[in-house]
Specification:
Rossmann fold, six-stranded parallel sheet, about 45% helix
Length: about 375
């Protein structure tokens, strides 16, 4: 047994509602507090997720300083916090937090520095970032990639060796997705209990590809005129998507729920889950839909392939191909038994590979391995 708790500082750029932020919140809530004493520092404000973390009894410190230019005072603030709290592990998330947090940790001689990369490098290929990531990778004990696809990009663009990078998948709370009250959600939105509901969950942005699902709906409605589309999430593309729905004259069949906390219930209300994202690091919403036993249709990108494993667990469509997407939706609606089988296989895969307990255990073991190797933590007999 470990004789003392590790003080772990998580540094993140901001804490709005989002996949990275929600995953951090889950990890913090599931730490074994006899082994880990966590603190969180947001370079921006606390945000909604920060307040949720505080409500779970974990301290959140907001610097309110992150801007467009490098700010040396952020490094100083982090160094002060590291020294005051005797931090033994610095975990950083996203580019700016990885930058400031690793510099501060290195200057304070923190024995375990572990940054995370949460997305593929579809857009983040700026040469100065790649150089900095390469240099800071050398002072990192391990760089975490949330999927093999992300690991490939870190090696390709940051030039880090394979043995410097560990793939640790995000996890979900498996117990949350088995008992969602779908009838309550259907009642809330006046959807009949026997109606067909197609759904998607994700921030409303270009990346998530909701507009291609909306474009597929008129084709679906020709064969299944009473089908509804449930679009869960909020974001900068909301107005554009709303206008697209109106132009296609399908207002009565598309429901925008906004940002929601009751995702298991929303998933329970869906017959089919569609994930039309154009790129991902680790598709958290896809994993949640799988855990809920939903038949899924996802874009044919590497992280989705990695999560689903094969077409036995879901169907794949090319990115931006609304015609093919509509065809796959219609195929599942015509073949309910096949759809149910897909959902069952997907659920089994999610519950065996992507649990939050597994994710948290892997991180904690990694911290202890690094600190133990450096003689910075005492261990007794197992």
């Amino acid at each position: 047994m470990v004789k003392q708790r590790m003080n772990v500082l998580h540094v993140i750029s901001a804490l709005p509602i989002g996949g990275v932020e929600n995953q951090l919140c889950l990890i913090l809530k599931h730490y074994d507090r006899t082994r880990v004493d966590p603190i969180v520092c947001s370079l921006s404000d606390k945000g909604e997720v920060g307040r949720e973390i505080e409500a779970a009894g974990i301290e959140v410190i907001s610097l309110n300083k992150l801007g467009h230019w490098f700010d040396w005072t952020i490094v100083k603030d982090l160094m002060r916090l590291i020294r005051q709290r005797d931090v033994k592990v610095v975990r950083t998330h996203q580019y700016h937090a990885n930058l400031y947090g690793r510099i501060a940790a290195w200057l304070c001689h923190v024995p375990c520095i572990v940054p995370s990369v949460h997305n593929v490098y579809t857009r983040d290929k700026k040469i100065h970032r790649r150089i900095l990531n390469n240099l800071l990778g050398r002072i990192s004990d391990r760089v975490i990639a949330v999927s093999e696809a992300v690991k490939d990009d870190i090696m390709a663009y940051d030039g880090l060796a394979s043995d410097k990078i560990s793939v640790l998948y995000n996890g979900m709370e498996e117990d949350r997705y088995s008992g969602g009250d779908g009838n309550r959600v259907r009642s809330e939105f006046s959807i009949p209990t026997d109606a067909i509901v197609i759904g998607t969950v994700g921030r409303l942005t270009h990346q998530k590809g909701q507009k291609y699902l909306i474009a597929a709906m008129p084709m679906v409605l020709k064969e299944f005129p009473q089908a509804d589309l449930l679009v869960v999430g909020d974001g900068p593309a909301f107005i554009e998507l709303k206008e697209d729905v109106a132009q296609r004259k399908i207002d009565g069949r598309v429901i925008f729920t906004g940002s929601r906390k009751d995702v298991p219930a929303l998933l329970a209300a869906m017959d089919i889950f569609v994930f039309p994202s154009l790129w991902e690091g680790m598709p958290n919403a896809l994993v949640e839909a799988m855990a809920a036993g939903k038949p899924v249709i996802a874009t044919d990108i590497k992280p989705n392939r990695e999560v689903l494993g094969s077409e036995n667990a879901g169907l794949f469509v090319p990115c931006k191909d609304s015609v093919e997407l509509a065809s796959r939706i219609i195929r599942l609606l015509r073949n309910r038994e096949s759809a149910l089988l897909l959902g069952s296989v997907a659920q089994e895969r999610a519950l065996s590979r992507f649990t939050i307990s597994g994710t948290v255990g892997a991180y904690t073991d990694l911290f202890e391995e690094v600190l133990g190797r450096k003689g910075r933590i005492e261990k007794g007999e197992k």
